[in-house]
Design a protein that fits this description.
By secondary structure, this protein is an alpha/beta fold. The chain is built from 20 helices and ten strands. The strands form two sheets. Strands 1, 2, 3, 6, 7, 8, 9 and 10 form an eight-stranded mixed sheet that branches. Strands 4-5 form a two-stranded antiparallel ribbon. The longest helix has 28 residues.
Length: about 450
């Protein structure tokens, strides 16, 4: 039986309908992600706590980072950065640990100093050595070496710095002027500082109690860094708390404490103009300048920032603190995560923006030594004699001392802190050799557990 004209027409229409359905199905697959993706983006989760790493007052920190993220997304239109916000610094560590335990770790995350060693030990952070060494676009020499070192453990890079701060010496110019004492130059020594502190420490109202003091908040870690004391071996397997450099630093700290005759020096005393010296981080310096009521509430004394004093075996060297970011070892977007980390750390426009809007310094010398950076630090200054130059901050960071990191570092330093601070606070003329041998034994026993 032959095929009728009607049947042939139906078959032809059926083929057209099938072709149309197939085209619609292919189109749907493309739009929904089947086959070649069209319009979809790679999502990169980024976690950063609110506020800032330095515990000082700042403006909206989220807005700053959102602007940086928007700039990255414009340069990488196939990437959407999911910025996880709303967690304060004090709650961040617990929040981040819960994320990691629930297999929801961010691809890129801010890493606190207290979490850093633990995260490396648990293989939570990606080892970045291959990225650092193989990416020809990444120039590690463009970053302050001291800042970069803070992201290393046992010689391997696990994090990159995005902000850094040096410690500077804050000096009450008015008090020194009243006592006819010149502000020390930037090459002054332990001996010079002690001499000034001994002259200004006194009972000014003759009531039998000291009411004017030399220094507040200066720590044994500051003195150790300025005397080139090396506390641990590079691999963290041994410690050296009996070195001449460290013992001289502790002796110096003890001599400063003895000047106070058992009285406790406080922040309020400095704010009231009764203390000559106090170390501040750059973040604190910038906050004091921005919020002068913290001082002017009590007094109108003038102040300045100078370098730290140098020990007999050291230099006018400051400790360096850094905010680091790391990559999750479980990330499925590691190449994109690296690009984002590199963008935050090495892009000069990003680093300048962070320097303008946060209280820390850029991690790039090229930014800190620029004319734009100088304008940032000048903002709000009223007295040219009080000016701290951005280039001076850069020199301080270049000469800065980074903490050596290893698995047991945080616990070992907490133990050493407790022992040494108790020793100094005792107010006694201590037997330094015997005391440091005891501390050496305790810290060695601790790190041998790991």
């Amino acid at each position: 039986m032959g095929t009728s004209e009607k049947d042939r027409a139906l078959m032809k229409n059926s083929k057209k309908i099938c072709s149309s359905l197939l085209l619609l199905l292919m189109t749907a697959c493309v739009v929904s992600g089947c086959g070649i993706s069209r319009g979809s983006k790679n999502k990169l989760k980024f976690a950063m706590f609110g506020g800032n790493n330095w515990d000082v007052a700042v403006q909206d920190s989220y807005e700053v980072m959102e602007n940086v993220i928007e700039r990255f997304e414009r340069a990488h239109p196939d990437v959407e950065v999911v910025y996880e916000t709303g967690v304060l610094k004090d709650d961040y560590s617990e929040w981040l640990s819960e994320k990691i335990l629930s297999d929801d770790a961010p691809d890129v995350m801010a890493v606190s100093k207290t979490d850093f060693d633990r995260f490396v030990d648990l293989d939570i952070l990606q080892n970045l050595d291959d990225y650092v060494n193989d990416d020809t676009e990444f120039n590690k020499s463009a970053i302050y070496s001291a800042a970069l070192e803070t992201g290393k453990i046992n010689g391997s890079q696990y994090a990159l710095p995005i902000e850094t701060i040096p410690y500077l010496m804050f000096v009450n110019k008015s008090l020194l002027s009243k006592e006819n004492i010149a502000i020390p130059g930037n090459d002054y020594t332990f001996e010079d500082l002690y001499d000034i502190c001994s002259k200004v420490t006194k009972d000014t109202d003759e009531d039998g109690l000291l009411d004017q003091f030399g220094i507040y908040k200066y720590s044994w870690r500051d003195a150790a860094a300025a005397n080139n004391a090396v506390l641990f071996s590079e691999d963290g397997k041994s410690c050296n708390f009996t070195s001449t450099e460290l013992k001289d630093a502790i002796k110096f700290m003890n001599s400063l404490e003895l000047l106070n005759e058992g009285q406790t020096v406080t922040q309020e005393m400095f704010d009231e103009g009764k203390v000559a010296f106090m170390p501040l981080t750059l973040a604190e310096y910038r906050t004091y300048k921005t919020y002068p009521y913290k001082i002017k509430k009590y007094s109108d004394f003038q102040w300045d920032c100078i370098a730290m004093p140098k020990g007999p075996d050291g230099d006018n060297k400051s400790r360096i603190d850094t905010l680091n970011i790391g990559m999750s070892s479980m990330s499925v977007n590691k190449d994109i995560a690296w690009e984002f980390m590199k963008f935050l750390t090495t892009d000069e426009n990003v680093q300048l923006e962070l320097y303008k809007e946060t209280p820390a310094a850029s991690v790039l010398p090229s930014v800190m030594e620029s004319d734009e950076a100088e304008k940032v630090i000048e903002d709000g200054e009223e007295d040219a004699d009080q000016l701290v130059h951005s280039s001076m901050i850069s020199d301080t960071i270049k000469n800065g001392s980074a903490e050596l990191r290893f698995e047991a570092y945080e616990g070992a330093m907490n133990m050493a802190d407790s022992e040494i601070m108790s020793l100094i606070a005792s107010g006694l003329d201590i037997d330094i050799d015997s005391s440091m041998r005891d501390i050496q034994t305790k810290v060695t026993d601790y790190i041998n557990r790991f």
